[in-house]
Amino acid sequence: MSTQTPARTGATAPDRAAAPPSDRVGHVETHGIDHIPAAERHGRPSSLFWVWMSANVGYLYFVVGGVLMLLGLPLWEALAITVVGNLWWALVGWLAVSGPAAGSPSVAIMRAMFGIRGNKVFGAGLGVLIGIFYEIINVAFATLAAIALLGHFGVTLPPGGEWVVLAVVGVLSFVIGVYGHATILALAPWFSAALAVVFVVLAVFVFGAADWSYQVETLPVAEHWALVMLGFAIVASSPLSWGTGADYARYLPAEVSKRAVAWYTALGGFVPAVLIGGLGAIAGTAIDMTDPQLTIGEIVPAWFTPVFLGMIVLSSITNNVLVAYSTGFYAQALAARISRAATTIATGVVATAVAGWVLFLTPSFLDALSSSLELSVTVFGPLVAIYATDIVLRRNRYDGRALDDTRPGSPFWYRGGVFWAGAIAMLVAMTVAVLSANTTLYVGPISDALGGADLSAVVGPVLGAGLYTLLWMTTDPYRDPAKRPAAASDTETMEVPA
Hints:
Layout: H1 46-56, H2 59-70, H3 75-85, H4 89-96, H5 98-102, H6 106-109, H7 111-114, H8 116-152, H9 161-179, H10 181-209, H11 221-236, H12 246-249, H13 258-283, H14 292-295, H15 304-334, H16 340-361, H17 364-372, H18 376-393, H19 400-404, H20 420-435, H21 445-449, H22 456-474
Helix pairs in contact: 1-10, 1-13, 1-15, 2-13, 3-11, 3-13, 4-13, 4-18, 8-9, 8-15, 8-16, 9-15, 9-16, 10-13, 10-15, 15-16, 18-20, 18-22, 20-22
């Protein structure tokens, strides 16, 4: 990654101390999907580490690690897959570098690769749908854990009391996202620290109970590798579901170190995902990880059970903070006249209401809904890969003000509002990824022909990136110099990744 000397007038440091009125702690952020002007840029890349860590120090990775053991994999392979599958966080970090370049959130930058109208389908449309699904799951799991926590302390809920618990969880899940960027950055280190302490204590008990001589049945080579690929897809689905790295980096000055932005973002997700996922795999040698919320009591003292339940509640809420914030952007891209705060509230209300319906009226549907999210990698895998490839092809040169222009004939209108290179690459890669998937609810014909191997986390991103590059080379949108964007937003010189 190469650097150039910034030529911004008045920019003496990349961490301008004073936060602008639009982005202050405890105040509702006023910016949405619009471009952040140079005068309002502030902060340090290191803050990104805590943002991503707070969202990923969570129960989900503990469960994923246990799932690898339930597949019948040896412990050392489960640990290796946990590391390799989470290397996709490097791609999430790479996407984040587009934030300071454009001063825009990811869904606005996606207009460059899909066009103004195309982005409403492939960026905003799919994003808001899957984002709400994740919000529902987080609210549901946090509510169940909160009810169990109250029961542990002998609190008997009156008729309808579970709906009150749901409402409280819903408010806590979305209020921070409504306040926005500055508040998220301020609270992230505290959430990260609190959750990390719980997992450190849990690790002491897990390591003490682990069966280090754990053995599994030896399978034929073909069946074994099918399980390895299935496990890889399960692990990789978490980092590949985050195509929103720019959302939290867009306030940073354009001349900030892109290397630092990428590393802090990637490590913020990678470190907790690997450590907690590995802890879940080790726990799988001692307890049945089908429902660790119940079986964890076999290896921890009684006093730690409510702490564990509290961790599930808090980690589900902190994960929802980032999900809700970005889902608000996706929704605003569909309804530009509505503020980001309003779209965050609207999607949160919908998610909470559906979570209540799923939990208390049709509880059998919760498992089906959770299983359907396994297919999210077939959508976000190609999307993240196309996005990352676009950054390379454009040399991370995005004009945030041009991205805000959604009128016919604008720089990113392309042909009929669609950039067909992105649309075709997305459709083809997504289709092949679906055909290659192996989930609880669905097994694609390609996966079935390969003995159950799930290649969706590999073929989707690889095919999406390759096809997009090929189509770009034949329909280069910058062939006309008049349509070539400025080197960076606000026309300043910026650091350009090699």
